[in-house]
Design a protein that fits this description.
- 36% of the residues lie in helices and 14% in strands.
- It has 12 helices and 11 strands.
- The strands form 2 sheets. An 8-stranded parallel β-sheet has the order 1-9-8-6-5-4-3-2. Strands 7-11-10 form a 3-stranded antiparallel β-sheet.
- α3 packs parallel to α4.
Length: 333
Amino acid sequence: MDLRDTLKGRLRLPLIGSPLFIISVPDLVVAQCTSGVIGAMPSLNARPLEQLDEWLHEIKERLAAHDARHPDRPSAPFAINLIVHKSNDRLEQDLALCVKHRVPLIITSLGARVEVNEAIHSYGGHVLHDVINQNFAHKAIEKGADGLVLVAAGAGGHAGSQSPFALLQETRMWFDGPIALSGSIAHGRSILAAEAMGADFAYMGTAFIATEEARAVEDYKRMIVESGASDIVYTNLITGVHGNYLKPSISKAGLDPENLETGDKSQMSFASDRKKRWKDIWGAGQSVSGIGAVVPASRLVDRLHAEYLEARRALGAGSPMLNRAWERTPEPA
């Protein structure tokens, strides 16, 4: 069954909270899902491995309890992000736990694996794969992903450089399956805009860093609130893959954000014993310009929902600049 069919009537907003490395934990995932949006978490945030089993059990138990109390507005499904890069020596074990707990939605990153998709499909789960261009998008679908997360320019963390308009339009020319769009989304208008452009979901991460449930240090949250789009630096130095990071955190780490070296992609590692060289350089998207305070995740979703509905109402009236005569069918010449 198409992912979109399984979600009919289950969401408050067509929104996925993107999995935030280190930051997304069960408290945030549960807060997102019980607020009516899809919450997500990287499997690698659970360390050691045994903690992932515990966290998956906890998330399912807490969501089931919420659903029992609120049968009229049950929680949205949750997602787990699997890094399928060859350096991730935990992939097989994390995947086995996702199958054991029948995680409804898996988001795969940094590679596409047929065997991963088949394992998730074995129990009826769905897979979205995140991509930054058409080459990766085609490979993901060819290898069995159900849908795509298009990571466009301006997104936090690992991100592409293409405009969301171009990336989404080009993808829709050949793919009619589920698509989530990422890139500078922090307002209800932006969620509606993603839909209008042809996406099924908006994909938003940075704003959720500045929530009470996020496992981010207070300085990180404060920097999100105080920064603007001009404070975002696009570089591959940090992990070997291009991404967006907060300029003040780069400066605090003793680097010159205006003169960064080029990273080495071959050194990218997600091994369980890896050393995180730049642990205090913090990822964020250009949407920081629209984030004004640290709030509970539920309050953030409340705001997004109100903005989304207002944007729908405003657009329903149409632009006052339009000449309504053009709406009539032209008479034959």
